[in-house]
Design goal:
With 105 residues, the protein is of the alpha+beta class. 40% of the residues lie in helices and 11% in strands. Strand 1 and strand 2 form a beta hairpin. It is globular, with a radius of gyration of 13 Å. The two termini are 19 Å apart.
Length: 105
């Protein structure tokens, strides 16, 4: 399986440049020293899903998609589960980042 810009976990990993909890200083344990490409962000996103991180996409007041990301402890404390659906469409900025990464590789 490959990076999917409509998967909220893949998109948040790419957009957030790893995953940082929105409520506490916890940062997802990324893979140092690996090649940074779309497959990397897919692995990070899917591992975060498996490890019960909550990724909650929502439009901002300006209409841009923003992600609230919660580590497993904060998600449990707040009684929140991650978003399991797919985004209606890829955010233009995420598509632009994907295009730039593909051109650079």
């Amino acid at each position: 399986m490959a990076f999917d810009s409509r998967d909220p976990y893949d998109a948040a990993a790419l957009y957030d440049m790893w995953l940082n909890c929105s409520r506490c200083p916890t940062t997802f344990d990324f893979e140092p020293g690996g090649q940074i490409n779309l497959d990397y962000y897919h692995r990070i996103g899917q591992r975060a899903r498996q490890e019960q991180w909550a990724v909650l996409p929502a439009p901002s007041q300006g209409g841009e998609l923003v992600f609230t990301i919660l580590c497993p402890d904060c998600a449990t404390r707040l009684g929140v589960q991650g978003f399991e659906g797919r985004l209606d469409g890829a955010e233009p900025i995420i598509d632009q980042i994907c295009e730039a990464m593909l051109k650079a590789s």
